[in-house]
Queue: 3 jobs
Job 1
Amino acid sequence: MEHIIINGGNELHGSVKLQGSKNSILPILAASAVTGKVSVLHNCPRLSDVDAAINILCHIGCKVRRHGHTVIVDSSGADSFDIPDDMMREMRSSIIFLGALLARFGKARVTAPGGCEIGLRPIDLHLSALRSMGAVISEQGGQLDCRCPDGLTGRHITLNFPSVGATENVMLAAISAKGETVITNAAREPEIADLADYLNKCGVTVSGAGQSVIRIISDGKFCSAEHRIIPDRIVASTFMAAVACAGGSICVAGVEKEHLAPVIPVFEAAGCNFDFSGDEMTAEFYGRPRRVRRLRTMPYPGFPTDSQALFMAVAAKANGTSVVNEKIFENRFRHVPELVKMGADIRVEDCCVAVVEGVRNLHGAKVTACDLRGGSALAVAAMGAQGQTVIENIYHIDRGCEAFEDVFTSLGADIRRVQSLQE
Ligand code: EPZ
């Protein structure tokens, strides 16, 4: 089992290029299965979740080639609407292929994803929206058998929560629906707008993405498209947290400042200094972080739940008490006991409020990554800790962060990946 070993205490200096967004490439790869044309997708990160999505595309008959950070999908030969259980389980968000398969074939057989490390991850909003568009979905032992006997029909759909995945699944189903689909209370994350940009290049007409009401209409005729995936705003916040924990001054190229608007003020309140020039962000931090009195995670444009653990790694060393309120997922504090092993003073009240009493220094420990963002948080905390930290289960980090140890080695961190602890 691979581990990451980090010897804390090195300041971070240097420049890195920000990877493309995991949460943007995944729905766009699913959408590329619908058009029956060629999609050339640039700035695709090398991640295990992307590999899993590509495996699904190949399984349903698409031809996929990869050249560096460009992925080329030819979905003209797609001929299967059945995704086997093992493939669905490889990637948490594989449910996004449901809307795509219904749009392409009018039917789909997939596995309900089930819960994961951070919560139950229900898909009731996805299923009720797709049913209202004409999908007949039977759920049997975790298997979803879906048919559209009369095809898909555009509807006015109101989501009772701005679910990212449900918004994306409806957008994908809508591109083959008869008539206009309107999504009210749609998710506003930048990844939704990126999916809309890609779909518009494919010949679909999507308007309002990034706001709460999205309209989709399509004549069912698609064209080949070339698209550049937006940068990963959550990995950008990982770099912010790393410099806040370890100290130093780094330059991150390829950022989209607007996407970072929800996190910049929080890290500035903790003591980070940022400078933006074009698509370059310089993040600088020296000394001990300041506490942030209260942080609550919210749908975009609120503070992202995916950056919560990263912020907590900083708060753990802050001068004072910070209260973190996780409002999106019910089990997203699994990094807390691991941070406590490193000397953090954090107590969780009910399931979703953590009281973080900052300590002057964290110390190295043997810790376990329990999910992608929690694992990244342990790593950035370790970079600013005294002594050696060993992190196991780092496959979680590989799902969403490309070449994690190489990137941080280039910034001066003392970090390496080992196949086993005997090395
Ligand atoms: C997406 O997950 C992201 N994943 C998550 O990132 C991110 O944390 C989340 O959006 C919120 O921003 C991808 O884009 C691949 P949701 P998703 O549907 O779509 C409830 C990461 O680390 N809900 O917006 O699954 C749900 O339980 C990952 O990169 C329902 O109740 O998120 C949760 O409480 C983790 N019923 C809330 O909505 C539903 O049918 C937000 O879920 C769907 C969701």
Note: The first strand starts at residue 3 and ends at 7.
Job 2
Amino acid sequence: MLIVRTTAELDQVEPARAGKRRGRRAVVMTMGALHEGHLALVRAAREAADQVVVTVFVNPLQFDDVADLERYPRDLDADAALLEPLGVDVLYAPSVADVYPGGRPIVTVSAGAINDVFEGEHRRGHFDGVLTVVLKLMHLTRPDVAYFGQKDAQQVIAIRTMCRDLNVPVGVAVVPTVRDGDGLALSSRNAHLSAGERADALVLSRALAEAQQVLDEGGPLSLALTVARAVVAQVPSVVPDYIGAMDPVSAAPVGGDYRGDVVIAVAARVGGTRLIDNVVTRVGPREGVA
Ligand code: AMP
């Protein structure tokens, strides 16, 4: 595995491989502190592509909270040790100065209306920062396909929308959320949780599972959301930012008697740590099912 720390070096990777057919290249973009969720993306990429590039970059542009940025876990040696056995070809881990040599970029990508709902509403500027770095990293690594996790459902919607609206010639592949055995969605931020907070945080996946059960039994979306909110309210140390439902294509909020595919999403603070989770499901019968 080649470890590349600068954009200039990354450019050298391309000519070095010239002469032999480049093949299909996949990229997995991460902020490091890798766990099994990230590794699921890498394995999926490895199976589908000839060349796998993993990026590790904690992107300051997407943090609305300086304290969150400063305490975000970073351990490149541990990340490299996890990636090497998976057959990753290139680990690209640039510095902030290398990615943003002029400081904050003058021209950025806007997530438009996606900024007004759910994560966008609660983390001002977050999706503009995400899309700006994703587009930059796509230009820098030139993949055929990029892998993202369903864990960040609204992020996937924003990236798909960017690629569609700006004709970005990169396929977007999505990998299901990886969870611990007890249901907690894996996240680099879980490292901040105390044992007690971790136990409390389980209420999030439990609330989503109970909402899903309401829908599976034919109940309306409004009831599923009421149940999810009631479950989370049982644990006062878990303070929700939102518990809601979104259209899986536009991220627009849906509710009431909506029928069709839906993402039920939750964000909450557990102590000083903000966690998100979601479930992709459907309101009403599936196609072909009576
Ligand atoms: P991050 O390092 O948090 O920016 O995440 C990098 C990529 O890994 C994103 O596409 C995330 O959606 C994905 N990811 C993070 N956690 C999980 C998880 N538990 N399951 C699946 N994908 C994940």
Note: The chain has two domains: 2-175, 188-281.
Job 3
Amino acid sequence: LVPLLANLGDPDGAAEAVELGAEGVGLFRTEFLFLSNDEAPSVESQKKSYVDLLAAFPGKKVVVRVLDAGADKPLPFLTDEGEENPALGRRGIRALSFHEDILRDQLTALAQADAETDADLWVMAPMIATIDETEYFMNLATELGLKTTGVMVEVPSAALLADQILKVADFASIGTNDLVQYTMAADRLLGSVAHLQSPWHPAALRLIKAVADGGQVNDKPVGVCGEAAADPLLAVVLVGLGVTTLSMSPSALADVRAELLKHTLQDAQRIAQAALDTGNADGAKSAARAAA
Ligand code: PEP
Ligand code: MG
């Protein structure tokens, strides 16, 4: 059975996530540390939050995402308010590499917190689109003392290059919220294009499969940490596509676990293939239901 992990937005939710059966953390969003501030928080204050988080998961995997500023998460001191299309602008790793001091401080705080705690800390970067960005992030994280470093796959280019990106990165985690937004060219916050935003769309499923295949050939783990992982039947499809961990809001863990327990891996692969062989999101969902 694939490990089920929790998505957390601050350390306060950690205890509840453990109670609800999280086997670790698959996505720790760090924006909360930055959103209420006019400037980046100090290494010392960040480290305190990371220690609080890591201390709740001794011996367990905890995947922390470095700051994802821009687009739906603007930050005055980091992002350019004049961009006409901020979702296609300097967000995520692009903003961080432009303000490398902020990235260095965050990675330093994470390495210090790691040294003081017993969790298995993994660190990943948001919005990776290229192999160059992957190498840049891996090199910096390694230089600053982090042991396991990976990328989020949220941009179609990264999914298409996953076999090469995963030669470099230790792991990948698919952010389906943004991956669907960029695959379908449909703003994730815009109701008028909501019909295009389904992670069931076979276009998204094919990209997810490309990432899982890239993980398999390189023997590297590939997780999903977007909302898609919280849909029980879609979780079965994701496992069938070759995804090795699922991370979701803790309240979804029990239902996803119950659904996964109903199927063997072979079943999941058959269900995933049925979904892949369709031409739209509704068709994929119906085909998966019929095959399950
Ligand atoms: C995603 O894009 O799927 C994701 C997990 O990141 P966020 O929702 O924070 O952009
Ligand atoms: Mg995202």
Note: The first strand starts at residue 4 and ends at 8.
